[in-house]
Amino acid sequence: MTRLMLAVCMVVAACLLPMASAVAQEGDDPVSQLPWQHGPTVGKIGDRATIKVPDGYAFLDAAATRRFNEILENPPTVHDEYVLAPDDLDWIAFFSFSEIGYVKDDETLDPDDVLSSIRSGLEHGNEERRSRGWDTLKLVGWSAKPQYDQQIRALAWAILLESESSGSKVVNYNTRLLGRRGVMEVTVAADPEVLQPAIADFKALVPGYTYVAGEGYGEFRPGDHVAEIGLAALITGGAAAVASKKGWLAAIGIAIAKFWKLLLLGVVGVGVAIRKFFGGKDAPR
Predict the structure, then answer these.
(1) pLDDT digits (tens, 9 = 90+) for 28-55
(2) C-alpha to C-alpha distance for 43 and 40, rounded to whole angstroms
(3) From residue 157, how far is each of 15, 49, 146 by CA, in Å?
(4) DSSP 8-state secondary structure symbol assigned to residue 268
């Protein structure tokens, strides 16, 4: 049953565009009034990591990200989150650390097998969506097959979904940056039409990401907690996959939390919609 986790993390941006317009019409551009930390600077991702924020980009700390989520009527999450984005908000990256332990990276990924698991999970996810009166999703396929970069210990993938009622497509690009005690979960939300340049832009910033001393993947020590899951499970559930071994209700609780979180972030993932906050492509100054 752990296979539903990724499905419930997907976004239906097309269903949320009316909400984006409603927020925009409130006036005073609440998103632009947030305390964006504009580059060049260094964003602190809790006490786990830092990321360089170049000129032309901006960062939100945990408190500001909570406010950002409130503006979008996004329910609070258990773990602190942080935002990195270009000033024009063509895409938004959300960072959140999951302390699941040291993930061994010696697993060989089979994209077809992983996709099959996702498809099964999506069926369960659609049952939940119907019960809430939400649009159901159709799995189109990989937008980017899973790839693991052993040099920087980063797993990345993207799945393309389609709204079954409107036919609108939506995609999130996911990255997992492995550390000594867990995984930094990063989701880049963008309009499918600009996803490729958004991914390229984000990837150019990844070398500026650094775990603080003592937290890096290569700093593992005997006796450290080792995660119960491997690379494939990071795609099909992550921390929720671990929770499922402790009980179905626990797994559902974590899955639903992620479902709501990433669903409402679909508003941000559509560049045209989010720019309504600013009346154009101007940066959130």
Answers:
(1) 578 888 999 999 999 999 999 999 999 9
(2) 10
(3) 23, 22, 4
(4) H
